[in-house]
Design brief:
Layout lengths: L9 H6 L7 E6 L2 E5 L5 E8 L5 E9 L4 H16 L4 H12 L5 H16 L3 H19 L9 H13 L3 H20 L31 H9 L5 H13 L3 H5 L6 E2 L4 E4 L22 E4 L2 H14 L20 H8 L12 H13 L4 H8 L6 H10 L2 H20 L4 H4 L14
Antiparallel strand pairs: 1-2, 2-3, 3-4, 5-6, 6-7
Helix pairs in contact: 4-5, 4-7, 5-6, 6-7, 8-16, 9-11
């Protein structure tokens, strides 16, 4: 049975006399008064740090620091520990701030302003970035001098985020920390980026692939959609997604003003006007560039039919209950489940993109750049990205979207492999596929 500790009193502290050895008087919960053989009396607090190691703090000398003050300091440190903050690191951060050092928070806010100006982030994205850093980083390391960081210091807050299962958040924060320290190096504030050694230190979520039907079943899918007995606008939204294979948010938040009927183009802007009370309604093209979607005759016919249902709304696909709000993000998947598909295993709305991409690539007709541009994928190679963005490949993409709509119609009658459909009547067509 552990020995019961009787709390100290000021008279007991005053009465303590030095001996030939240092000794401690314990108050409980890690606080004790160290009486040194020299006669010096010092308050100390022993605790377990968030990294699992033993920590020891000094709270001042007795009697200038009285028992009540020492207990308050112990309680303050315990509160920090309960929040996952190391009181030793917290004290260093406070000292750095008082000394006027450039802190992690100061440099981060400078970096953020610079990124907003250079990257032209949307307002919601910029706010989300700084808000996540405020909530997950500044309390633990925000006050540290930018010059004093070691890699292990940066890993501590990431481990805290990781421990609560927010793996995607931890990965984003790791990237942003590295970017902040890269900015500090580039601006001569430090000589070395300690965040570059964080690579691989944080767990990553296993990639989850969105289910898509094999192309042999694309005719079956279309026939089921055409026979759908639910809301007509939902049926048309599924068909439209098949023909133009844009992302869910690009479709749901779409406005009629984006349709250029004369040029037969759907012009998805990088950012849309906010709809009051609707989260994320400013989302436009995911890649933050204007995304051009050529409209085939079949797609235009669908839009004309949709217009008879929702033409009075600014939204192309409004909610059934409120014309001023978009359809739910679950609408298409819910409809697919009504059609008998398991959206976790068989096919989901995003899987329409996968099927379209597979068919376009397998046909052998279209250049890689045209397919990637139409899928609105981000090119990782900076030089290629600049070239693709400038070139657009719009005329090739018009032919590609027309071909895809015709392929969908043919697949309703009978399945034909994309490569075979690209070579009608046994005649080999000119292939545009490039390395």
């Amino acid at each position: 049975m552990p020995k019961k500790i009787v709390p100290l009193t000021d008279p007991k502290c005053e009465a303590a006399r030095p001996t030939d050895k240092d000794y401690s008087l314990f108050d409980g919960n890690g606080l004790h008064l160290l009486v040194k053989r020299t006669g010096l009396k010092v308050w100390r607090y022993k605790f377990k740090r968030p990294n699992g190691k033993q920590g020891l703090m000094t709270f001042g000398r007795y009697p200038s620091t009285r028992l009540k003050t020492a207990r308050q300091k112990r309680d303050d440190a315990a509160e920090l520990l309960a929040a996952g903050i190391d009181p030793i690191d917290h004290k260093k951060a406070e000292q750095a701030t008082k000394a006027g050092a450039l802190t992690f928070e100061t440099v981060t806010r400078d970096w953020h302003r610079n990124q907003v100006a250079r990257e032209k982030w949307s307002s919601p994205h910029a706010e989300r970035v700084i808000r996540e850093m405020e909530a997950n980083l500044f309390q633990m390391i925000g006050g540290f001098s930018i010059e004093d960081f070691k890699t292990r210091d940066l890993l501590a807050p990431l481990r805290t985020v990781e421990a609560r299962g927010a793996l995607d958040m931890a990965a984003r924060l790791q990237q942003r920390i590295c970017s902040v320290f890269r900015y500090a190096v580039q601006n001569g504030l430090i000589d070395y980026n300690p965040a570059q050694d964080l690579t691989g230190a944080v767990k990553t979520r296993k990639a989850k692939h969105r289910p898509a039907l094999p192309l042999e079943r694309i005719g079956e899918l279309q026939n089921k959609i055409h026979e759908y007995t639910g809301r007509p606008l939902t049926r048309l939204a599924m068909l439209m997604t098949l023909h133009v294979f844009i992302r869910s948010s690009e479709l749901r938040f779409a406005r009629w003003g984006e349709i250029d009927w004369k040029r037969k183009l759907w012009i998805i802007p990088p950012e849309r006007e906010a709809i009051e009370g609707v989260p994320h309604s400013t989302r436009g093209s995911k890649m933050r560039d204007t995304h051009l979607v050529p409209l085939s005759p079949a797609a235009l016919a669908l839009l004309e039919e949709i217009q008879t249902l929702s033409g009075r709304s600014a939204l192309i696909f409004p909610s059934d209950s409120n014309n001023g709000r978009p359809m739910s993000e679950n609408t298409i998947n819910k409809a697919l489940r009504r059609l008998g598909y398991d959206t976790q295993q068989d096919v989901c709305g995003h899987g329409f993109r996968t099927m379209a991409c597979s068919a376009l690539v397998e046909s052998g007709l279209w250049s890689r750049d045209a397919v990637e541009r139409q899928m609105s994928h981000k090119e990782r190679n900076g030089v290629r990205a600049a070239y693709i963005h400038k070139a657009e490949h719009l005329e090739e993409r018009r032919l590609m979207l027309d071909w895809w709509s015709k392929y969908l119609e043919e697949s309703r009658r009978e399945y034909v492999a994309p490569f075979e459909y690209a070579q009608p009547k046994g005649k080999k067509v000119a292939r545009l596929q490039r390395a």
